[in-house]
């Protein structure tokens, strides 16, 4: 029986070769997209799974409930108190630097070693890397010890058995206490060396408001995380508020409302890559992942819809065959199984083709996402095969069930194609397919408009030809280094101007603190800078004046702010000049002398945050954080000027260190890459959807028009013109398209409006995509269907009329 079913199946594949090819193509494309996105998702979820303690390690994030914003920092005394007073917390590890680099000296050589990390002494209790040399006991205790990866050990000593050796950094000796091997598995935490921020932690021991650290907590197994978050509020946040509230003249609860954060959030370490609201190692984007995965599933659904439609149309042509089989005793179950087998053969063939195509496309996909995914995870094969079986079951079961339930006498008369069941099934499924296609067209156009809007938006500054060089060498007095070299670098041929700014567009490097005025407080970024920095970046002055190096007060107590700062306090510009603010980093009042237009330094999707600008010498600690020098380059010989700057830097400023530099406009442009990739993927998926849908429409219309060839012959004999016949054959499909687009419009509007809510700078919902979707789909439907309709008008009349 099985052999007989397979013979019938292959006869029908050959007889309906166009439908068979379209089904194979559509399912292969759909399954390939599904597998690629699934591998991408699985790769993102795989980070930190190597860690044997992953089930009990949680990343700490702060939550400002009033503004619904998240932070990734904690203060040292908060972490220390949590271990002391909350029984569920066993240990903590703090970070205050990653991606660090130093010039290190051994007995035999001096080399630059990068990718380092500054972490507290319990690091190896959280990350038990394989130990190669030395011991983890007290490996990070004190300020004169260092742990090295095998890569760093080989770079410095040429071997890995180097525990007890000495390394000099900035003329300070460090003893190598441990050498470890980094895991090959995915991890965001892969430092090539680790030192402790001993002196900084010593100074921050009682500084509850210095949120300078990222933090992981090690919890007891079975800890109720929601209950733990409440304990953090009661035992940590309120405790801190009680210490500071009395001096502020408010209650502890009111203090939290004013100065935040008001809550905490704990995310498992193996979920931070994709699910963390805020992370020291970069925020995840689970929402975008779900959108991509949903779209890939929709393409598979479209392919399944094609399959259902075409199988239904073909089944109607096989009605007499089925009627005969039922008449001689075939059961409903055997008919259903036969259809399922025919469907499974096509689906499994598509599955094998999609595996090959996925392997072929994987290098390009890895390059697109900067990954190294390989097809060695059984989950990919399991879930994709499960999808194949689901498509087989649904695509085969629907037409088989309809046909198997038809009465034998009606199938023998060939009435299935004209029955309400057959017509409503095909039309309903075709409508669903066109609804999805319409959504993709509308969504793709809106995504393109939003990305273009962000890229074209006036950012409020000009980073063109501004070249930034980061300080790699840690100087005891970095501001003195800047002041020493800025006049010398100004003399380099091709350099037009020199300046320094802390809040650099595109750097993602900033600090902030509360800004207080009477009983109101806001969070604002720090913009320590040289006097000319805002003019250097072509920022526009809205009101007031620039900082002036000739005025002593501009170095002591005068600041500038942006429009967002003024608006956040609810002031007018004139009120801002009359009021004085007290920053959280200082206890003295500061007077506002100028207001600049808002300019975006962080992200094109986010609203400009309040910033306070002041000279870097204004506070004792800010001058120690001077970390770059910026040069405006003349346009006539940019490449030559960069070469001269690099040569000067490596010879006179930081010999032996890498030349860490970039153009600010190009760096800021990298913040658009994520959205450009979304735009590219949406465009690719859009093209795939339309291709699958239109091919399915062509095959379905071909089958349905073939069933009407006798009607066409009769009408042509009676004098109907070709135009009338073509319109008559396409009219039904045009009505279905119109209805589908009208249904998709509210659905698309809602879903795309939800997507746009993630952008502070967003377009107004445009009408054009909805209108274009309707026009485009009507044109494409008419074009696809009319090809077969026109061919139908050229039928041999004798062939279709000779039996009447």
Automatic annotation (TrEMBL):
Membrane topology note: Multi-pass membrane protein
Gene Ontology molecular function: transmembrane transporter activity
Assigned keywords, A-Z: Cell membrane, Membrane, Transmembrane, Transmembrane helix
Transmembrane domains' residue ranges: 21-41, 289-310, 335-358, 378-403, 424-447, 681-705, 733-752, 767-790
Protein's UniProt keywords contain Cell membrane: yes
Domain MacB-like periplasmic core: 20-231, 433-647
One GO cellular component term noted in the UniProt record for this chain: plasma membrane
Predominant cellular place of this UniProt entry's protein: membrane
The ABC3 transporter permease C-terminal domain, residue ranges: 294-405, 685-796
Compartments, record wording: Cell membrane
Protein name per its UniProtKB record: Putative ABC transport system permease protein
